[in-house]
Design brief:
The protein is an alpha/beta fold and about 240 residues long. It has one domain: Rossmann fold. Helices cover about 40% and strands about 15% of the residues. Helix 1 packs across helix 7 (about 210-220), helix 3 (about 65-80) packs parallel to helix 4 (about 100-125) and helix 4 runs parallel beside helix 5 (about 150-170).
Amino acid sequence: MERKVAMVFGGSRGIGAAVARRLARDGFRLALTYVSQPDRARDVVDAIVAQGGEAFAIRADSADAAAIGAAVEQAVARFGQLDVVVVNAGVLRVGRLHEFRIEDLDAVLDVNVRGVYLAIQAAVAHMRDGGRVITIGSNTAVRASNPIGSVYAMSKAAVASLVTGLALDLAPRRITVNNIQPGPTETDMTASHIEQIKALVPLGRVGRPDEIAALVSWVAGEEAGYMTGASLTIDGGYVL
Ligand SMILES: NC(=O)c1ccc[n+]([C@@H]2O[C@H](COP(=O)([O-])OP(=O)(O)OC[C@H]3O[C@@H](n4cnc5c(N)ncnc54)[C@H](OP(=O)(O)O)[C@@H]3O)[C@@H](O)[C@H]2O)c1
């Protein structure tokens, strides 16, 4: 049977790496991007290949439109098709209004908003009808929860809004567009403040990347075909 193809933007570490490994386990051939950590990207590829899967990594800065387009072209050239795209690459910059620098504002919007839109645009141009677009937003789109994360929350709220419009746009092609909104999850992004966050989660712990990946796996699968335009929060009850 022909193996479907998935592309994960930001698949070298954390949630994206777990998603790449999980989709490979589900039988997808994988293309993943990274920007700064080739060794981590190689580890993910090696782990997938060691399990009998097919994967390769592409350096592509999600702040660079040309790099995003070229990465999609490479994935399609290698595998000949594209069925699922997971746009996970994201950056966190924090600070109160009076101290927040314009460079950080631009960095967050470039990767978390503009980069998401451009990745979807590039991928869908090659995607087969009936495909899946999955974004990784954040539960902060629902409730910011702290005074230093407003720009990050704004970027993730933009993504939640984007998927509703794109779901309508792409419905005629039966391409579903959904957004997974994790809460605090154990990755490099949260490493410095994990203990403080843990205390704020009703379930008393932070999430594991493989738990987020399991939800992505379901949304990417056949059974999720009737769901589109949804933002699904998975956060241990944090925003309740
Ligand atoms: N961890 C959490 O608690 C949490 C909660 C809610 C939402 N999220 C969201 O989940 C996603 C993944 O977060 P994470 O915690 O797994 O983060 P992470 O551990 O910091 O990993 C970020 C991933 O994105 C890639 N990336 C970052 N900037 C990029 C760029 N400009 N171009 C291409 N790739 C880029 C990184 O590549 P390199 O390895 O090459 O740097 C890495 O693969 C993000 O969108 C984040 O906002 C995370």
